[in-house]
Amino acid sequence: MDILMSKLKIIYKFFLMFYMLLLAGLSVNAQSGYAQITLPKVFGDNMVLQRGIAIPVWGKATPGSLIVAMLGKETIKAKTDKEGKWMLHFTKFKAGGPYDLKIFESGKPESAIKLKGILIGDVWLASGQSNMELQVQQARDAPNEIGKADFPQIRFLIVEHDIKLTPQSDFLAGKWKLCDTNNVKQFSAVAYYFARKIHTEQNVPIGIIQSTWGGTPVQTWTSREMLLTSTATRAKILANDTLSQNNVVKDSLNMVHFWDIVYHPQGSSDKIVPLPEYDDSGWTAVEMPHMVKDFGIGKYEGMMWLRKKVVLPPSFAGKQLVLNIGRPEMNYSLYFNGAEICKTIWNSNPKQFYTIPASLVKNGENTICIRVAMLWGGGGFNPPAENIYITDDVAKVSLAGKWLYKKDVEPAFPQIRNYQNYSALLFNGMINPLIPFGVKGVIWYQGEANDTEAYRYRELFPMLINDWRQRWHLGNLPFLYVQLANFKKVDPLPSESEWAELREAQTLTLSQPNTGMACIIDVGDANSIHPLNKQEVGRRLALIADKKVYNKNVIASGPMYKSYVIKGKDISITFTDTGAGLATRDTASLKGFAIAGDDKKFYWASARIEGDKVIVSSDKVAVPVAVRYAWADNPVCNLVNKEGLPAVPFRTDEWKGITQK
């Protein structure tokens, strides 16, 4: 027993000594960690710093210490405050580089941070929702564009998605990357094409800080303090006070589960449901092509399976075939006789044509199966019917007509609160950490998520612009933005439109100083909220930058409504920004004008160009009082200036809109 007790004492002393050493080590590490100089992630190797301004650099270090920073040949010093925070400003630099940035505590060279490959040029903040976030690899002509993307003086910093209840001093993740054929794939297509044009014309390095999140409203990008100043937003921002970070974490976990269901068929359904012998006798018949909202099942979100048995002609047997699936929802898988042919995901650029190997093709009846994610009220096959067929390049068999569908084959999606849409939460996590990094200006593409409150957007959008300008302390920082494209079905008659009212709110925001708007009413897609021609969007944004920021003598906008005069049955519309003159894009006759009398009933109008004016009339309106142009979700319109830029949609009346409450 004595021997045992003696051994236990030795073991106890050993562990006591180990514990004390561990505490001492932790203490040293804590002290050294506290003393270590830290920089927010917006600073990094290969970054671009803004030319022509006092360049701000900030971070943390030991309280009361003297910080020494060296950029090129310039040395600046600053003292940390009682919390260890410090900020300094280098003098104005001209475009150039590369430079190194070295920062250390005076007398402690071992504390030095050294960043390499830094260029001085113009930095633009690119923000907004999915049309700004859409990647180069998802946009038009992606393989060709990626293959020639060798611009080492264009750099991107993509801020990772993050939701925070309070303003953060640093963002979650992200680092500066050079623009090459590998990195460019993930860059914002709009921002890249904007940057490429500015860089090649101005011959200066361009940095893009990309902070975007698809499907988000303008309120989430605006600070709590600014939102509290308006009765229109005060209640919702105060409602955030009931949230905790646990809510956000739980929602994030549900989101992971959500996408796991989308990308990974549950219960081995992909091994069972696509088989030709699968029993689908209890499934519901539907005519395709169709959108799910037209199925008569209401708004549905979840995984849906569709099947069709098609009898192929004997000439198809044993041949390699091509199947055109049209335009389904983005996330889908296609199966032929039980074999997976394709699987698309959110960040891919899905094709419409797929090769069916000859080994899968049977004589007579064959089974086509599609697993598709029905998201955000969308889903289904976009018409026309002639776009879905199977062919051997000689004969063609239509796949339009009767299909079978079932919507409960797999588990339901978990409930998601989408806290990224809550007021100020993306500002807190993805904008505040960037302030006050030196920038040349902002490019913005957003508005789709605010279409139901388009009238309020007249206030909401300028609030964001003023909020960011006040916080950056760079005066009336250039703020360039994209107006909503044409989208949805074409209305045969003049009608009211949420999207038209949102575009009007965007146009009215031009009353804010140093703003510019790229009109893209001619490059949209009726069947996709994400039109793929981002080259033209980036070019038009860059044209505005050329004129407003770089002082080039260019035509940067299409015709803008100025005034009108009523002369009998005619209304004469005057425009600015006519460039070399008014013209039509594709035909001798003008389209897109509607006219109304006191009864507020609009009719399609005849219109003709006379100098810088358009004369509008209709035999159905004897005493006209108002004109509208391109006033629809997806207007058929063709007025341009001779430089090819489209006329901005407008109305002359101020009658109450459908989003005005």
UniProtKB/TrEMBL annotation:
GO terms for biological process: carbohydrate metabolic process. Transmembrane segments: none annotated. The keyword Hydrolase applies. Residues 122-240, 439-524 form the Sialate O-acetylesterase domain. Keywords: Hydrolase. It holds the Pfam family SASA. One of its GO terms (molecular function) is sialate O-acetylesterase activity. This is Sialate O-acetylesterase.
